[in-house]
Here is the input.
Amino acid sequence: MAQCGPPPEGGVGAGDSSSGGGIPIPPETDQEVIDAVRTAFFLDPILEEDAFDVLSIDRVVYLRGVVSSPDLKQRAAEVAAKVQGVNRVVNQLRVAGPAP
Here is the structure.
């Protein structure tokens, strides 16, 4: 199993492709927050973009689904919390139990 290191520094925002990589624009809508969190998961070397559900209500991000380890659960919350525009993360991820 891969070791979980610290998430990348800096936040991920909605971005502005016309800026040529300049200052990212913070997400303004809940859908933009969701997209930015999914992008952060995609950019993370350990997390998978669509491994679990991401919901945003008034910039509060809810993570739902099943992960394989407590480390992945914690990492997902840490990465989501670093995204610009996220006010709070509610980590509802469950850790899969051992196979029967």
